[in-house]
Amino acid sequence: MKSDLRIKPSESTRHVRYEIRGSLARRALELERLGYEITSLNIGNPGIFGFRTPEILRLSMIENLPRAEGYIHQKGLFSAREAIALQQQERGVAGVTTDEVFIGNGVSELIDMTLRALLNSGDEVLVPAPDYPLWTAAATLNGGVPVHYPCRPENGFCPDPEEVEALITPRTRALVVINPNNPTGAVYPRAVLERLVQIAEKHQLIIFCDEIYDGITYDGAEYVPIASLVHDTLCATMSGLSKVYRACGYRVGWVSFSGATHRAEDYLAALDLLSSLRLCGNVPGQYAVQSALGGYQSIRELTRPGGRLHASRAAIIDAVQRSAYLRLHAPAGALYAFVEVRQDKLPQFDDMEFALELLEQRHVLIAPGSSFNVSYRNHFRVTNLPDAQTLAQVFTRIEDQLDDYAARTDGRQISR
Length: 416
Prior knowledge:
Blueprint: H1 23-33, E1 39-40, H2 55-63, H3 78-90, E2 101-104, H4 106-118, E3 124-129, H5 133-141, E4 145-150, H6 161-166, E5 172-178, H7 190-203, E6 206-210, E7 234-240, E8 253-259, H8 265-277, H9 283-286, H10 289-294, H11 299-303, H12 308-322, E9 326-327, E10 336-341, H13 351-362, E11 364-365, E12 367-368, E13 379-383, H14 388-409
Parallel strand pairs: 1-11, 3-4, 3-5, 5-6, 6-7
Antiparallel strand pairs: 2-8, 7-8, 9-10, 10-13, 12-13
Helix pairs in contact: 1-13, 4-5, 4-8, 12-14, 13-14
């Protein structure tokens, strides 16, 4: 006799959001199966837009495949960890050795593991809003409470350190900093980072700095490794091969610890335990790390004037400037633009509704701004990975859809 009893998911998943690969992405896949060509701007996946991993990384992995068939140390391949430690030292981060480096299956796995090793039920983590939503999800799934500090559009999406400090309570354990920022493209000034470090050291908060876009900046924006400023608290710097080296599928990320590591032996031991429980990270991809960090940094060709990423970013900026509805704080780094829909033009705008209509009618997939844990609903995120011509065409479709949206929602004629 068959039972009608439904299998229920864990309660911990009820408040987890990841619209980047959520219902809109599932609908896009359905449309593709029906034969429609979808332009996917919702995710920063270089491989689908024609970018290749540098050849030296591919060769390093291929040549070492015979040595990559067994488990390795749970922290990762020694040569890879050594290259990461040396990079941190070259950036002015004191005291990092291979012992303070952990390699995982992308930064995503390490975000989950580092929070799991830290949090007890009810512990609070300060997370930027907008954020990369995995940070909020990982805090929630590991029993913590994400507390969002605002990075306001009118402030160029940079945090106000005094607002951050005002949110600290006795339960606050950590401060998350995403720089260069996803989704906004903001690159935080040195003075802001210095003040955030002062606050974290004063309250003895662990700093988790997500710096996966550390080599992707535009027009002279200065990326400052926050770990180089930290001395009197623990700092965890996260990066990997996915973005700067266009190797998302290799699934190689790392976290290096610096600062007050002498006060964190128990925490690091707990993280080592969690690392050993999953045996080790992806081995073949780790053989590419030393070549990546020690070799020619081809990302600079892409981000400087005349480079493809620089041109694509410029195409987005130009399209927004021509729009009757849109506004943008020009991204200074990363692979995204967090575009604002002007409320004086479309006061009834709803980002989720518009994103679905844009997908169904114009076959363009974007990420609604509210999926990045903000309360306002008048932004959306796009990636600048497509070429400039494609992005210009896409924003023409976005503008046409905004015209239709305006006519339907309030019937007003928008003068250009």
